């Protein structure tokens, strides 16, 4: 039969042979089974589909029988990916051919994969064969029609449950899946077979899962009486069964330790407790008490996951009970302890549970309970959930409003008894201090929580909610209520139960994150088109958010009887505030006539400085006055322009405005930084040289030591701060206090170690002298006469010596600490200065982008180059590298490569030529090629500016007159500068210049290229090194290939140039081996010039005798392409190597199964030496080559000559016999050797 012929390779002659089908069809059919074992899932699925289609076409009885046999055999395949493929195929075949009996297939599976008859090493495969066989029967969808097959499958799975070490819980899950579908035959067929498993439900989680599934799908078959008979109790969850349930849950938790998932039996028990109205008993006794008896581990994690999964199933009262219990307390302790590295963190899973619940639950009351409960879980006052918890975006508007009200109420009246607060062991020792700090930590988190709600654009919120939060934070930062007022100031209705301290106000006053969020707040109902620019920072009526906040501040200032300011304004400050409001009103009126970005930017700046008046009124007062004078002067200048009366040469208001922006940039606030960029971009057209110089002076590395006006570093409690510093908007949520204390102790220990190293490493001579004096005063120094000084000192002297030494060492320790603090202070000061300069670079970038065509842009070339030069030689700190990278990006990409540039040099031609001379001189003297590239790019930029705007170009190619246009460029002077640079590049061994720089020069300015060609041609032979000679060839070749150069040169000049090049190439002679030189020659022939190239021909003909073309084929191909123009063709070389007599014989073809000689072991048993009369001499066989000569044999014997000559004569035939290609001959030789061994 076919299967015996294919699988076993045995021909059965007792039965008549059936006609065999076309081999091609059988090959296609057999390929399906190969694809079923393919590791790729797509290939397996395609094979199953094709197999079903093949079997359904025509009479395929034999193929169907063979298919069933192959599929049943493949269920126990050794490859893991093959078993699902064969199981799926078997299930689909049984589903497609319903005439096949499932009982027969089940019998085949049992017979083929019988666990009692299979060998021990194949037992595991047989287990999987039975399991996947049952899965195939289940996938067929026909189990319901054959109840006896269902019973057989269940019994087979019951046998497989015992082998958990291999199958784990797969048989139980399969049995559960079968039970969910065969509802009709459960009581009749399966109940009696499953009674033993159901009765032992408290033994394993799998059996408990089976019982729970049966209860869920067959409640009529498992009534309380039946359960009483099986389990001795009519219910599963009761007080007597709690210990048993706890053990089942513990086993389930340990079984999924690696998978880190919630066992399904735990969730089913929870659902059953809700159904039996015993949830309180199950949660309190089984989960809260039973699961937390063991130390932290899988049982705890199961409880936390069950808590998250239970959220959608519980009622409102149950949610309140569960989320305020011991399980939540344990979860909070886990979150705190898991912050340490290398700890398992379950918080991301809990976030997913809560997010899914809030997303699917539309009940606002339940959403509020969950949010409040998790926000109330605090560690010493600080909630364990982050202040930027993203789940808030799924809240309904009503729930969000209630949650914000709860946050505000908790901020004003924190009640510790309503919080689920816990403390670590370290925190419990300081209970009194903890109370005050816990309130501060809670209020700090609430302010950050409110700001994050505003900042999260995914949160469904209305404008009134946003303004309510902003008013609340602003009011309690700078004001306090004297007496409750009407509804216009609702913040006065409730006063803090515990007064706000200065530290709390210092954190919450004017949080920059809140202002930043308002600045970037999109429209709530933004219906703008996709490509339309969306408005941000404004309300629906177009008013800025910060303007609403200023109006609220004005309202508070106008109610002194009801509201009291924490820092009341002086008369001068109040006047500045009123002037700010008046200026903003004037700007708004002018903006209505013609709204411009300039007016909006000035409004933002006025409002921002007005808000800063509440934080630092003394420092901001001068800025406010300067800003108002700037606005007045700017308006006066516009009026003068309209009247055509220019009374002032320079608008001084721009310089003052730049100074204001620089002073504001010294503050750590992204909001202030962006407002300064916006304002500066609006005043860019009015910036003067003096204003730009003020910006450049800040960035000048040479004036870094003198720069102390914008940044002031103060040392207050080991904290380095900036002047006018507001709340740090980039501050993240603080860690738990116990972690901070541990980190602090680690830092202290590290500091002590550093001090010890300093004391041991560097010895202060003054300290040594002082120590000698102390010892001499107490006569404690040992002399040459005294062996020890201990005998001469009594107790009083020793005590006095100890005091003196203690005072001396404590003083020395203070000096070391002072030095260390001073060093840290300097480092922080440098960091602040660098951070400030990074912000100033924003202004430079804005000016370069907005005013790229201004003549003032040329004043940035040298300062930026100085920054790059100093940055490359400075330290390797990350902040320094970022600053350097930013400055280099602005210089190359925004300045030098900009399509917009200054095209009107005017009367600055001499200045620009001097600048070009200075840049090229500096570039030649540098040692770093990367830095030289920036100087060379700057030189090309200056030449581009001098040339100015070229004549209008059409779509056609530029003419020679257009190419010769160089504007204001002094061509001779500039050509001499670049010629000197080219000579320096060719004559110096280590030149910072590169050929790519000159290639860019030739490409962008063809006129300069024509002037430099003669110099480049001369250095083809006169360059200092061969590499530079080849670079000269490259430059000349690229220039001659350019169409612009060909247009600029006349025919006579072109011919003369080619003659010079050919003459120089002839002089190279042997150096023509470089590929660049030969390519140059090929280009000359392509031009078809009337130039005498006979000398080149002679030089090239001698090249093959001096140079071998073995390294690269490109050089050889180019060489013969050049010689072809001379009529010399490449000789044909016979690639076949002729055999030479007397040479080494070709190695015989290695037969399969024989090791080559080089792979054989060197140390083998000595071959048996047969007598001289024995026939062991080598005989030449017809299959051997006759190239083995006497010379070859002698050569082998010389390599390894034994002591005995007879042994040597016997080893060669033995070795030769192993090399025989004839396998039969090799097999005959081995028995002889063994036989000889037996005789010996």
Automatic annotation (TrEMBL):
Pfam families: DNA_pol_phi
Any one GO cellular component localisation term in the record: nucleolus
UniProt KW keywords: Nucleus
Organism superkingdom: Eukaryota
Compositional bias per record (Acidic residues), positions renumbered to this chain: 727-762
Family annotation (InterPro entries): ARM-type_fold (IPR016024), DNA_pol_V/MYBBP1A (IPR007015)
Compositionally biased residues, Basic residues: 1188-1200, 1225-1234
Spans annotated as Disordered: 706-762, 1132-1240
GO molecular function list: RNA binding; sequence-specific DNA binding; transcription corepressor activity
Residues in the signal sequence: none
Major place of residence: nucleus
Subcellular location: Nucleus
Compositional bias annotation for Basic and acidic residues: 1132-1143
Keyword Secreted: no
Similarity remark: Belongs to the MYBBP1A family.
Protein name: MYB binding protein (P160) 1a
Source organism of this protein record: Poecilia reticulata
Lineage: Eukaryota, Metazoa, Chordata, Craniata, Vertebrata
